[in-house]
Design brief:
Elements: H1 2-24, E1 29-34, E2 39-42, H2 44-50, H3 61-64, H4 77-82, E3 88-96, E4 102-112, E5 125-132, H5 134-174, H6 178-209, E6 218-220, H7 222-239, E7 243-248, E8 255-257, H8 259-275, E9 281-289, E10 292-299, H9 306-309, H10 322-325, H11 333-343, E11 347-353, E12 357-365
Parallel strand pairs: 7-9
Antiparallel strand pairs: 1-2, 1-5, 3-4, 4-5, 6-8, 9-10, 10-12, 11-12
């Protein structure tokens, strides 16, 4: 008998070490508790999620694990564990730490049926899996918001385009006034241009999020580029009875950068300036600076509140100002702009006052 025990003892120790090593290699937090809910085994990942240092063996799980539900109300963790007769999980909980930070929590509870130490339900204890799913939740929320925003923004221009083209067809068949046909087709064309711009934004966003944006450097004649933009937007501004001004420093020089992305940044800024200005003017000024070229787009539009200025470069952000909501938009333009600015190593400064207009100033370095 003694010989048998001596033979099996090393094997038991080896098995225990293998189990401990296996648990510690897991990225999920693992906590094994007995049927009194005291911790019997845990790994390093569990300590990180529970935000504790040192040994927690023998500590009641109720002291360390205090999740909240989606309404930020405390969860009865004892009930959650005790009612788990089979593997039970939830992705709807969160943990709040002492420093005020908060993480989304995935928690899985599996009862253990081990044998003679079991309680009256035949359960000897429980194994808890804990995982920080904050990033996953954030991506899910972004996905849901993306689907909501894009589906809404697609519906409006498609409906308007379809209606106007149908009207144009009816009018054309009746061989009546051509001006009605032109007006309907023009309205449809404007919506299709909006759709095209949105698809471009989504394409750029997709490449930016996947890290697929690359710089193809070339000499850029900034004077030519700005004049092209001015010519391209002059008619759009005139359509809103706005004056579009262009002032270029005579000493302005070419810079080495990405013409595609510099042009896209300026297009986004000019488009927004015209879109959110109902009367007055929009000015584009450019001058040489030691770092490269500074371009400012100034408007006399609705302006941006102090609160909104902190969020305008966030993905999908759109101001609650009713004047902003009157215009189509996905909330992606300035987010994409910021992505491009970082790629170009460019700086941007925003000054704005409600009902008095905004000025976006970008410094493009010579790369």
């Amino acid at each position: 008998m003694t010989k048998s025990l001596q033979t099996h003892k090393p094997k038991n120790l080896v098995d225990q070490e293998r189990l401990t090593s296996l648990i510690n290699s897991m990225t999920d937090g693992v906590v094994a508790i007995d049927n009194k809910l005291n911790i019997a085994l845990y790994n390093g990942a569990a300590l990180n999620i529970l935000d504790v240092n040192g040994s927690i063996e023998g500590t009641s799980i109720t002291r360390l694990l205090k999740p909240c539900d989606e309404n930020n109300q405390p969860v009865d963790i004892v009930r959650f564990i005790r009612t788990a007769t089979t593997a039970t999980s939830s992705r709807d909980y969160s943990l709040k730490y002492q420093d005020g930070s908060k993480v989304a929590l995935y928690i899985s509870v599996s009862p253990v049926h081990a044998g003679y130490t079991a309680d009256d339900k035949g359960i000897d204890g429980y194994v808890l899996l804990l995982r920080d799913i904050t990033r996953e939740k954030s991506l899910e929320e972004e996905r849901d918001e993306f689907i909501s925003v894009v589906s809404h923004e697609l519906r409006t221009p498609i409906t308007i385009s379809e209606g106007n083209i149908s009207n144009a067809l009816v009018v054309a068949q009746k061989k009546t006034d051509r001006t009605l046909i032109i007006k309907a087709l023009k309205a449809a064309h404007e919506q299709i241009v909006f759709l095209s711009d949105m698809i471009n934004d989504l394409s750029t966003l997709s490449r930016a999020e996947r890290g697929k944006l690359t710089l193809e450097l070339e000499p850029i004649n900034m004077r030519e580029l700005l004049n092209e933009l001015y010519s391209g937007y002059k008619e759009t501004a005139a359509g809103k009875k706005l004056a579009l001004h262009l002032e270029i420093d005579p000493s302005l020089e070419s810079i080495n950068s990405s013409k595609l992305y510099v042009g896209e940044v300026l297009q986004n800024l000019i488009t927004n300036a015209i879109k959110y200005t109902d009367e007055g003017d929009v000015s584009i000024t450019a001058r040489k600076v030691p770092k490269g070229v500074e371009v400012a787009v100034q408007d006399s539009g609705i302006g941006i509140s102090k609160t909104d200025r902190e969020k305008i470069f966030d993905k999908f952000f759109r101001s609650e100002d009713y004047r902003t909501r009157q215009n189509n938009g996905t909330g992606l333009g300035l987010y994409v702009t910021m992505k491009l600015l970082r790629l170009l190593h460019a700086d941007i400064d925003v000054k704005s006052e409600m009902n008095k207009g905004s000025t976006f100033t970008v410094t493009f370095p010579n790369l």
